[in-house]
Structures are given as C-alpha cells and as structure tokens.
C-alpha cells in the first residue's frame, strides 16, 4: 500500500557554491561522464562532514545580515546566492519493486535534483511544486541513498523578498507500480436540478508493470462526520507501461455546501483493486460549491452574490522568512478572515499547499496565480503544474496568468495568454482565467479580449470607460490601494521613514483605502477588490529605500499585528458594528496641543468624549469617516458608535504610564508535540495598571525550556535591522512576536521574557502529546563508494599496495560494492584487490574515525595508507570494523583490501556498503 513519508529532517546544508573540481585526468573525465558518476558536491563521495544540519522548511536568506551596499532594496537587502543540500536515507529491501516519488513543494529558485550521483530533475521556478521519480536510481537495504539539491537563488523571479533554499516540505511517496497516478484525481462536483449534485471524478491509473491488468476503482464520497454518501465501482484495464483514465459520476443530494461562512469539506476515498485486492488508496479533500460570474453584477458563490473583499499577499512572515511552519499559514488566513476578508490573491505566484488547505478549511476564496508569463514548453509545464496541484481545492475560484506584463496590450501577449489559457482549460475548465493588468486594457487585440475577467490593477479612473467599451466582460480590481502606514504611528516622518495611520498616504499610482473601496463598492459590475497588501512583506520598501527593509503597504504588519486600517476594512467588510479610534493618546509634553483623531467605523453616527466630556457627536459618511484635531489631555478618549440612534459599539484609548511589564497572547491554548506544529506568541508592553503601552520600544530577551524551539522573532518595524533568529528583539510601538515550534518532545514549555525595567514574565505553553508524522530513515554516516577492483584474479598473492597507472581504465574496474558480490568471483580461486581513497577533515581525523564493512567474505587484509590494519578470514559474509586511530592520516587516505578466494567461499569479496563513522 501507499506510504507518504516526510523528508524534512536531517539535511546537510552548505551556503555558497561549490565549484566542480577541475580534474583533467582521463580517469576523472571518463568517470564524470557516466550515470551515477557525477563529480563534486553532488557526488556520493563528497565530504559533507562540516556541513550544517538543518530541517525543512529552510530559508537561508533572511538569516544573513542585511547588506546595505550590495543588497537589493526589493529583496529586503538580504543576500541570496547559491546553496547545496545533501540528505542520506535508507530504503527497506521490501521497497524494491515499488514506485518511489519525491515531491518538492517549493524551492527558491532554480533547483537541480541529484540522486546517487545522477541528475534526476530540474525545476526553474521558485514557486511551483514538482515531482521527481527516483524509482530507477535508488538502493535498498544497507546502502544509503544520497539526495543532493543544488539551489541557485542568485536568479530572481520577483521584486519582493523571495527567500532562498528548500523552503517548503519534501515528501517521499512509495506505491505500487500499478496505482493511482501522482495528482491523478480530479474531483469536479457540478450542480444539477434542485439539490442534486453530480460528483464527476476522473482517476488516472498508471501501470508501470510489465503486464496489462484488469483493475477496479472504488470511489466513496465521505462527509465530515464519516458517513459515506455515495459510492461507485468502475472496472477498467491498464495496459502495461500506460495510463488509464477512469471516469465516474457520483450523485449526491443536498450536500453541505462549501461557502465562505460555512466551509464544509468532503473527502473522496479512492481505492484501486486488482483481483479484488486493494493496491492503492488516496484521499482527496474537496467541496461542493458553485461559482458564476456576471458582467453586470459580479461574482456568485452558490448562486448568492458575493462582493470579493480580498487582499494580495506574498508569502513571508516575521521570524521565519518564507519557511513558514504550516500553522502560520492558518494563523495568517484566520487574521484576514477576522478582518472580514473573503478572498486571497496569491501575488504573484503559486502558494504553499498548506495555504490552500487553510483557505479550504477557513472559507477563504483564492485567486491562484502563476509566476512566469511564458507559453514555452517550460512555461506551460509551470502553469499545468499549478492546475493539477490545486484544482481540487474548493477555495480556488480564479486562475491568474500574469501580473502587469508589458506585453499585456499587444498581439504577442494575446498569443501567449491564449496558449497558456488553453493549457489550463484542458485540465480544468471550471474557473475563470484572468491576468492582472496595469495598462493595455483599452487595446483591441491584446490579452484582455481572451480573458474571462478583466483584471484591473489600480487604474480605477478607467473602470467605467472599460465597462462601456466591453459591457459583456466581467471586471475585478485584481490589485487596489497601495496605501502606506506604519503600525501604531500617528505622525508621518520622512526622516525616520514612518507613515501615519490616517489613510492618506499612498503610492502615486494607488489610492487610499476609502477611495478605492468606494470605487469598487459603488459599482455592481465590479466583482470586488484585492487590496495591496494584507500583510507587510520583506523587500519592496516603496517609496523609500534603506533603512526601510520591508514594505509599508500592509493592512497588518509583517507579524500580523493590525495597523489601524485593519479596523477600517472591518468597518467596510463586516456587517456587525465597528467603532475604532485611530490616533495616539500618549503625547507627554504635548498637553493642550491639537492631535489628529479619526474614526474607523460603519456606524451611522458617532460621539467622541475626552475624559467624559462630549466633544463631538456627528453623522458618519462611510467613505469619508470623521477626523478631528483635538487638544491633547491625558486620560480617556472614548468613541461611541450608533446605528439609528442606538449605541452599538464603543472604543476607548487611555493614556498609559511607563511600560513595566509584558502581557502575552498565544495563538492557541497548547502546542502539538508533533515536531512540526507552531504557536504564535504575541507580546505586548503594559503599564502598572495593565494598560497597553503603544509607544514602548524596550529590548526584550527570551529563553525557553521544555519541548519547543524559538523559530524566530519580529516586531513589524519596517526599518528594523535586528536579526530574526536571535534570542532578543526590541518592542516596536508596544508589540513583538515570537514563533515557537515543536521539537517533537512533550514537556510543557516555559518561555521567559525579560527586558530592562520590565517585570520578567514566564509563560507556560502546554504541549499536547502528538505523534510525529512518518519520516524517511536518515543516515548520518559517510559512505565510501569509489572502489576499484582488479579485473582479473591473480593466482599469486599480489602486492596489495601496487600503484594504479592514472590512464589505466582496463585492468581495474569501477565497482559498486553495495550491490552485492561480483559474480566473477564466485567459485574462483586466487586474489583480488579493492582500492579506494577518502579525504578526511581535521575534525574527522581527531574524532576517532573507523571503517565499517557491512559484508566481507574470504581471506581479507585491510591496508590503510599502505599499513596492514586488520585481517579476517571467513567463508561467508561478515562485518568488520577497523579503527583508524593509530594511522598517520594525510590529506588522502588510501584504502586497499586484499581478498584471497577459494571456490567454496560464499559471496567472496566486499559485498555490502562500506562506511566511515566517528567515535569521538
Ligand atoms: C504593483 C505590483 C505589486 C507591487 C505594487 C506596489 O504594481 O503589481 O507587485 O509592486 O505595485 O504598489
């Protein structure tokens, strides 16, 4: 049966490129040209003992110091470059005969995948997930497999922080060669008359066996409560070496619909049977929902009109770069939901699978976006990859093919778009396809004619003009706003590069939140909006550069702390009453001077009190809000919101004293001890009365005991140059955030926070017992594989340390000892020599190295640098351990194994893996 194992543990990492060694000898060039014989850091023999051990997800870029001189503002001044990863793992002997697939969820940016010294895959996009079939090249049993990934992140695909490395998960799937294909299931439920739905299921079965097979597919629709609500069996035939596609239609009446408010999910259990026996099972999560778009009235979900209230987002988060633990995706989507948002644009690239899973679970619509506008075979492969991975997610409702492409208004752009769109439609014709345009919309013959929806980035002055010209074409604000604000800041300061929070600062091409929402919300034909951006992100510090290293666009900062505009969107997007005071009320020394105070409310009337005294009571226009200049006096500022004369919402801001303590909020009550879970810890400065101190900026240091690790920290300050992975951080406007991950243990965590003038705080985070997901068995030893064996048996005992001439490819043969005994030797009489060499580092030399022979048979003598170290005689395979302690170890250590063979020796010679371990 199918197994899916995590490959996230025990990678060795080297930052920087490793040039392929220049070797001019015939021997080296000849060997490098052979399958499995690659030279350099991808080779089996490469010494990786000094490499750093890392786990996935891993992003090496954000951990580097900011580089003001050499860095790129758009990339957040973080170096990227090249990195190498190596991982050794073992497979069971019983895996022999199974199909083995490696799934890489995302590597930034260009990745080359090597397995056991051969290139098995390449991927040229930092955002697509891809699969590499390693079945042919693996070893089973003792001999470890070596997976090497070279990551070239010196190439960029965006103008934002893209991270660097294997920053998403890696999986190994083991399955029968006759089984359901990778991404082989496409569930497409279609509504029929009344409450009836047809669950259209297409299942692709691949037969890598040598004979054809009659198969049976059993598909079951399972509701969340476990009830099987539909079931169908279909027979088919899978020819040898080919794929068969089985189509089924499973009727379901009155399913619980997937909707943004009640995201009901179903599971499809697919079981493949051969001769009545189960061969494979796959479970696919999906939902019943319909979508429809109308040029006059916009978007419909389950036939209910729904204005798209969306945000655009990149994928990084404070503390962790782009290497987000799964729980953080959920946290971010939940933050946006709480704002009233119902849609997420994956700007400008395919997201992590876990993000879409969170959107499915929480009820968030998704515009899934492709990175490269490219209809070449490689470009089409990338777009197809997005669709086959994502089409079962009910949350995904739009596919976007590009963002702001200079070719968007041209016939060339149109041809590219059309071919890419056709590639999508072949795989999924249920979602509208668009591009996010910042020009060219009025051109005839450009891309817009072949889009299902015209995506407008900004250009809101042109909405009506376009609608008049193309009344039949649905329209959406694929990107809007681009306003600037710094969380908790109420006075813009160009010298410090901070923006105030009064919804007035914006990019030249953008709009304020109010202008933009008015433009969208007052036009029924505008399907909705995607605000740039939900969260701040590293890089693109527009309109500034250094010291700003991340954006000012977010409605929430890089940690997900809400800026004031968060409440403005709540006022726009939620039905429930919202009244929020935007403005600071901590201005020591400014008593009596006017300070700005603004409402973020959806009430029709508000009253503002200062220390109990009514200052204003007035009607509110939603797209204007109220703004006052109020003489500051310490105390309480109170805003009351009314609807039809009734008080329905209240907000207060109270002048605080000096920060003297901290308050902590965790994103969940307990951490799961599964080695992958994470909890977000938000830290707030408070005064002696427990009031939030919105101006606090003290440095806080942290430490932790129990089963957790601090993955990183942030504070949302776009100009902060503090390191995210250190155990201290300054508060920024009263807040900072830690991300605490599970280390797979189950002891409660005690997190201690302290700072000058702050009462130390110990926060206990309970850890729930949970199993780790299954992992691939890692191997830590160094494997010695470059063995040469004398071609002929010698009747006389030869000199075991005889020299090999460098051009001699013929009297010595390269052999792979882990494949077992050489048949040539079985039943023979005479002597052979095995020869290999290794290079030991200083650390290895000083750590009591030893050699370990997994299987050695015959009369063997082990020589190291010409010195006899061990002898063993055995007529069948035995293990042998040889300590290297007393040997003079130079740069190159030459190993010679002399084997004397008689006809009755069973499996003579070295017939199993040889490894080197360290005792010290
Ligand atoms: C848009 C672009 C985004 C971002 C934004 C900033 O033109 O699509 O990626 O750069 O501007 O306002």
From TrEMBL:
Q: Does the keyword Repeat apply?
A: no
Which Gene3D superfamilies does this entry report, sorted A to Z? Galactose-binding domain-like, Glycosidases, Immunoglobulins
Mention one GO molecular function.
beta-galactosidase activity
Family listed: Belongs to the glycosyl hydrolase 2 family.
Looking at the record, the residues that make up the DUF4982 domain are: 592-649
Which classification does the entry list for the species? Bacteria, Bacillati, Bacillota, Bacilli, Bacillales
InterPro entries from the entry?
Beta-gal/glucu_dom_sf, Beta-mannosidase-like_N2, DUF4982, GalA-like, Galactose-bd-like_sf, GH, GH2_Domain-Containing, Glyco_hydro2_dom5
Task: Name it.
Answer: Beta-galactosidase
Ranges for domain Glycoside hydrolase family 2 immunoglobulin-like beta-sandwich come to 185-289
Q: Residues in domain Glycoside hydrolase family?
A: 662-760
Q: Which residues form the Glycoside hydrolase family 2 catalytic domain?
A: 296-371, 380-544
The EC number of this protein is 3.2.1.23
Beta-mannosidase-like galactose-binding domain boundaries: 84-158
**Natural source organism:** Paenibacillus silagei
Q: Which UniProt keywords apply?
A: Glycosidase, Hydrolase
* Keyword Hydrolase attributed: yes
What is the main EC category here?
hydrolase
Q: Pfam families from the xrefs?
A: DUF4982, Glyco_hydro2_C5, Glyco_hydro_2, Glyco_hydro_2_C, Glyco_hydro_2_N2
